[in-house]
Amino acid sequence: MKHRTTIRKQQVEFVDATKEHMQLIYKWRNQLFIREVMYNSEHLQWEYHIKWFENNLIDDQVYMKILYYEGMPYGLANFRLTDNQSNLGEWGFYIGVKEAPKGMGMLLGYYMLQFLFEEVMIRKVCAEVIDYNERSLHFHKKVGFTQDGLLRKHILKNGEYCDIYLFSIFKDEWLKMKSELEKMLFTE
């Protein structure tokens, strides 16, 4: 069993994804343990990835961030503003290193939510989680998301229809959870 890593804030970097990250993210996205919890589980072709990545880099409605810990990149978080008027959008994230220290997913989520709510000033972050992705279901509940709904037998995966859980969190809910998460994540 992995033990939670003792995390010091000064060892964390949370940076914008750039073209220099394109190959790394391609590698991460094509790992089976990542693909199997995405809507599209197929192996991604390089040309498709380049187009997706470059379109996201120039889209001012999209934010892509990379989490580094102790100088090593561990994961990607992305957010797409889907409704300007209502100031809301959808996020997704993953830890691309299978043997990452325990706590990296929580750390990535913490920094992305802090960025979205406190720098970009987003009002509401939404998420969709496949029913068999227990880690993500647990994560969303732990950081303060509320389950808003369920899309029953919504997508076909491995010959079976799967449910999709719908979650959201508002800025005020994030601010209430933030200090609790900091106590859980960080040491002095």
Question: What would your notes on this structure say?
Answer:
By secondary structure, this protein is of the alpha+beta class. It has 6 helices and 7 strands. The chain has one domain (9-185): Aminopeptidase (3-Layer(aba) Sandwich), CATH 3.40.630. It has a 7-stranded mixed beta sheet with strand order 1-2-3-4-5-7-6, sandwiched between helices. Helix 4 runs antiparallel to helix 6. Residues 12-168 form the N-acetyltransferase domain. Keywords: Transferase. InterPro entries: Acyl_CoA_acyltransferase, GNAT_dom, PseH.
Quick summary:
By secondary structure, the chain is α+β, with helices and mostly antiparallel strands. The protein is 34% helix and 34% strand.
Question: In terms of topology, how is this protein built?
Answer:
Layout: E1 12-16, H1 22-29, H2 32-35, H3 46-58, E2 62-69, E3 72-83, E4 88-95, H4 104-118, E5 124-130, H5 134-142, E6 146-157, E7 160-170, H6 171-185
Parallel strand pairs: 4-5
Antiparallel strand pairs: 1-2, 2-3, 3-4, 5-7, 6-7
Helix pairs in contact: 4-6
